[in-house]
Amino acid sequence: MMAGSPDHKQEDGGDFNTVIRLQSYLHGGTSSLLSALPTLFVFPVYKTIFRQQIHNTSVHRAVGQLYKEGPVKLYRGVVPPLLMRTLNGTLLFGLQDTLLRHLSLTTHNATSAAALPALAGFGAGMVEAVVFTPFERVQNVLQNGQNDRHLPSLRSVLMRLKVQRISQGYYRAFLPIAARNTLGSSLYFGLKGPVCVLVAGQGLSPMGSSFVSGTLTSMAISLTLYPLSVLVANMQAQVGREVKGVITCWRALWKSRNHSVALLYRGGTLVILRSCITWGITTAIYDRQQQQSS
Fold this sequence. Notes:
Blueprint: H1 18-36, H2 39-55, H3 59-69, H4 71-74, H5 79-106, H6 116-143, H7 154-162, H8 174-200, H9 206-236, H10 246-256, H11 261-264, H12 268-293
C-alpha cells in the first residue's frame, strides 16, 4: 500500500486499523533513521552550507572558517539533526497516515480523494513545526561559530533559550517554519503517489519507482522553499540581539543578498542534492515496508 494513497481499505465496518496506524509511525521512523545515518559523514558539508546561508560567503571561505576552528568544533551541532530527523519521520509519516484515514472516513464526497493526501500532509506539517521548531532553533545556534564563546555547550544554549520569551527563544522563526513545513508536506504527500505511478509506467521496479518519486518530489519542494530555510537560519542563528519580525528580517536578508536570487540560493545546490538523495531513500524504504505489511 502506497503511503499517502487515498484508497485505504477499511475493515470491520470502517473502523480504524490500529496496527497499521502504529506501523506507519514505526516505518516512518525506521526509514528516516536509515536515510539520516549518512548525515554523520556529510555533516561538514551541511555545516559549510549553513555558513554560506548565514554569512553569504563562498564555499572556499566557509571551508576555511571550519578548518581554522578545528576538528573538535566541526561536529558541534550534529546531535539535534540526527535526533530530529528520526523523530521527524516517525511523526510526519505516522500522523499523515492517521489524518488521511480519518479524512477518508469523514469527508465522503466533500473533498476530492486525490486531494486528501496533501490535506493530511498539511496537518502533519503543522504539528511537525510545533514539535520541532525548538530542535531547529538549538541546532542553528550551535552551528553558528559566533556563539562559541558565550554559548560553548548544548547545556548553555538550552539554559539561555529557556529564560527568553517563547517567541524569542525556542520558537523563534516559528511562522516561516510553519509555512515551509506545511507547504512542503502537502506537496510531498500530494505529489509522490501520482509521480510514482507515472514512473512505474516506464518499467521501473516498485522500489525504484518510489526512490525516483521521492527524489523528483523533493527537488521540486527544495527549489521552491529553499529561501524560507535561509530566512529561518538567519533568524535563529543569533541569541540576545534585537528581535525583529519576519518581514523585517526578510527585507534585511534580501538587502544583504544585493537583491539577487542567485545569492539568495547560495549553497542551495548542495542542500537540494542532499535532500533529493535523503528523501529518495526515505520514500523507497517507507513504501517498501508499507507494501510488505499490507
